[in-house]
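Look over this one:
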Amino acid sequence: MTRHHLINGIQVPFTAEEEAQRDAEEQAWNDGAFDRAMANLRQRRNRLLAECDWVMVSDSPISDKTDWQTYRTNLRDITNGLSTVEDVNAVVFPTKP
Protein backbone atom coordinates (compact mmCIF):
# COMPACT_ATOMS: atom_id res chain seq x y z
CA MET A 1 0.00 0.00 0.00
CA THR A 2 1.37 3.38 -0.97
CA ARG A 3 1.94 5.85 1.80
CA HIS A 4 0.93 9.47 1.47
CA HIS A 5 1.79 12.74 3.12
CA LEU A 6 0.30 16.20 2.93
CA ILE A 7 2.07 18.91 0.97
CA ASN A 8 0.30 22.27 1.06
CA GLY A 9 -2.89 20.50 2.07
CA ILE A 10 -2.76 18.07 -0.85
CA GLN A 11 -2.31 14.33 -0.32
CA VAL A 12 0.76 13.25 -2.28
CA PRO A 13 2.09 9.68 -2.54
CA PHE A 14 5.56 8.96 -1.22
CA THR A 15 8.35 8.73 -3.75
CA ALA A 16 10.30 5.47 -3.94
CA GLU A 17 13.07 7.15 -1.94
CA GLU A 18 10.62 8.30 0.75
CA GLU A 19 9.14 4.79 0.92
CA ALA A 20 12.61 3.29 1.37
CA GLN A 21 13.50 5.83 4.05
CA ARG A 22 10.27 5.17 5.94
CA ASP A 23 10.77 1.41 5.66
CA ALA A 24 14.27 1.83 7.12
CA GLU A 25 12.92 3.95 9.99
CA GLU A 26 10.24 1.38 10.79
CA GLN A 27 12.76 -1.47 10.64
CA ALA A 28 15.11 0.39 12.98
CA TRP A 29 12.23 0.96 15.41
CA ASN A 30 11.23 -2.71 15.28
CA ASP A 31 14.85 -3.84 15.69
CA GLY A 32 15.09 -1.78 18.89
CA ALA A 33 11.96 -3.26 20.51
CA PHE A 34 13.88 -5.80 22.61
CA ASP A 35 16.37 -3.20 23.82
CA ARG A 36 13.54 -0.83 24.80
CA ALA A 37 11.69 -3.61 26.62
CA MET A 38 14.86 -4.60 28.50
CA ALA A 39 15.57 -0.98 29.43
CA ASN A 40 12.06 -0.64 30.88
CA LEU A 41 12.44 -3.92 32.76
CA ARG A 42 15.81 -2.88 34.21
CA GLN A 43 14.44 0.50 35.21
CA ARG A 44 11.60 -1.11 37.17
CA ARG A 45 13.95 -3.70 38.69
CA ASN A 46 16.45 -1.02 39.74
CA ARG A 47 13.69 1.03 41.36
CA LEU A 48 12.55 -2.01 43.37
CA LEU A 49 16.12 -2.72 44.44
CA ALA A 50 16.63 0.89 45.51
CA GLU A 51 13.42 0.81 47.54
CA CYS A 52 14.80 -1.96 49.74
CA ASP A 53 18.45 -0.91 50.00
CA TRP A 54 17.77 0.21 53.56
CA VAL A 55 17.19 -3.38 54.63
CA MET A 56 20.74 -4.40 53.78
CA VAL A 57 22.62 -1.71 55.72
CA SER A 58 24.29 -2.79 58.95
CA ASP A 59 22.07 -0.68 61.21
CA SER A 60 18.81 -1.91 59.68
CA PRO A 61 16.13 -2.82 62.25
CA ILE A 62 15.64 -6.15 60.43
CA SER A 63 17.94 -8.79 61.87
CA ASP A 64 17.00 -11.81 59.72
CA LYS A 65 17.63 -10.64 56.17
CA THR A 66 17.42 -14.02 54.46
CA ASP A 67 14.07 -13.37 52.76
CA TRP A 68 15.23 -9.93 51.66
CA GLN A 69 18.49 -11.32 50.29
CA THR A 70 16.54 -13.90 48.28
CA TYR A 71 14.17 -11.22 47.01
CA ARG A 72 17.04 -8.97 45.93
CA THR A 73 18.87 -11.89 44.26
CA ASN A 74 15.69 -12.76 42.34
CA LEU A 75 15.38 -9.14 41.24
CA ARG A 76 18.99 -9.00 40.09
CA ASP A 77 18.58 -12.27 38.17
CA ILE A 78 15.27 -11.28 36.54
CA THR A 79 16.92 -10.36 33.22
CA ASN A 80 18.75 -13.68 32.85
CA GLY A 81 17.79 -15.79 29.85
CA LEU A 82 15.51 -13.24 28.19
CA SER A 83 15.89 -13.15 24.43
CA THR A 84 12.62 -11.84 23.01
CA VAL A 85 10.16 -9.05 23.72
CA GLU A 86 7.63 -11.73 24.62
CA ASP A 87 10.03 -13.11 27.25
CA VAL A 88 10.42 -9.65 28.74
CA ASN A 89 6.67 -9.02 28.75
CA ALA A 90 6.09 -12.36 30.51
CA VAL A 91 8.41 -11.57 33.43
CA VAL A 92 6.77 -11.92 36.83
CA PHE A 93 8.43 -9.88 39.53
CA PRO A 94 9.08 -11.57 42.89
CA THR A 95 6.93 -10.64 45.86
CA LYS A 96 8.50 -8.32 48.40
CA PRO A 97 8.90 -9.97 51.83
The radius of gyration is 23 Å. Helices lie at 16-31, 33-51, 53-56, 66-76, 85-89.
